[in-house]
Amino acid sequence: MGVFDSGVGGLTVLKELRRQLPSETTIYLGDEARMPYGPRAQAEVLDFVRQAMRWFAARDCKLIVIACNTATSAALETVRDEVSLPVIGVVRPGAAAAVAASQRRAIGVLATVGTVRSGAYVRAVRDLDPFADCVQQACPKLVPIVEAGKAGTPEALAAVKEYVEPLLSEGAVVTPAVDTLLLGCTHYPLLREEFSKVAGPGVRVVDSATTTALAVREVLASHHLLASPTVPRHEVYATGPTQRFKQVARTIFGEDVDVSETQL
Question: Which residues form the catalytic set?
Fold first, then answer.
């Protein structure tokens, strides 16, 4: 199966896919040369995703995961109608994780500018629970911090604090104002320690990786596409320089990851 992201963030989803589906062969594509997607126009992101779909089509994938919230918001419904194999995004699985975790139906979504602008998470959360209160916060500094390998630094903590603290306090009848933070970008789990520290013990921090992997399993099973027990192959590609990509990949997987350069 193919997994696509604007950069290294989707590797957090890939790791969970490999854990839940250990027999499946995977091929990952990170569009490092053009990340971040968040500030870009929706039409431009859609064009990038279409290029990625053609790239995967040449590699005989049976299912594609768009492991990028911005790309999911901008392009999922369109490309689903344009390709002949299942395509899964990360927005609805992420919303499902947040709805399941929230006890007070008070959810704060942290995402890219593009994802926030699309309103995709608000629609997905309210589709799952019409009575849920969902507020959003765009976080333009975070993807560059992750891509630069700066997770765990004072700079990362300061940026997370800048975005999270308003969600916890603004308009609060009770404190904290939200009881669940949804990391609406697949880069953000690499800053989970910072999010948890700023949010405090009374706020749950969730992302889409686990629920996306569950959705993939269900789709593969329903289409009779699950792989037989075997030793899978795993390939990782990036459209830009791979040195920094490899460093972040090592942090995620705890081992060296072979990354090849490619073009779209």
Answer: 68, 185
